[in-house]
Predict the structure.
Amino acid sequence: EVQLVESGGGLVQPGRSMKLSCAASGFTFSNYGMAWVRQAPTKGLEWVATISYDGSSTYYRDSVKGRFTISRDNAKSTLYLQMNSLRSEDTATYYCTRADSSYIGWFAYWGQGTLVTVSS
Amino acid sequence: DIQMTQSPSFLSASVGERVTLSCKASQNINKYLDWYQQKLGEAPKLLIYNTNNLHTGIPSRFSGSGSGTDYTLTISSLQPEDVATYFCLQRNSWPLTFGSGTKLEIK
């Protein structure tokens, strides 16, 4: 059974940093692209970043480019999102997803999400 | 960026009714269009990928169609468990963009 379990969320002050993790199991992690998708409270879904199966390619939405870094450790089957210079508009539930077929593939599996609240 | 416009924003329908949700892209997305269902308090779930491919385990009452800029999700016979918000996602080009969602309720 495919499982994606996010962790690392919580309350953080504006301008500070936070690192999210996503532990994957039930599939060969190193074969799949992975992505982060977020959802602000009561709002819609927003793609954040994608990483290729081997970590050689990364893609970001403009609003997080230069502040967020997506990375992976295939030996640990874990996906990360390092978030720096956090802003109030980054407040959201962050979902880890698996990209099927290719790194720009459909999001077949999702974690349960971890809530990040940016507030003083 | 490709803008995705979903309509209607809200839909109320009766059990057993045929329901159609629309998603329109601001440019041709070459059928790289997925549909996701999100129930209250839960993570989104993939229903359909690449316009018309049903994801594993999804009931056959869900179907998708479309091409170019116009795409449709159809529920052939609405069930009480289909109450949710439905989002479309284009994967034709970066940045990937979601529609704003259609909230579906039972009348």
Summary: The two ends of chain A are 40 Å apart (CA to CA). Chain A touches chain B through 22 residues (CB under 8 Å). The CA atoms of residues 34 and 98 of chain A lie 5 Å apart.
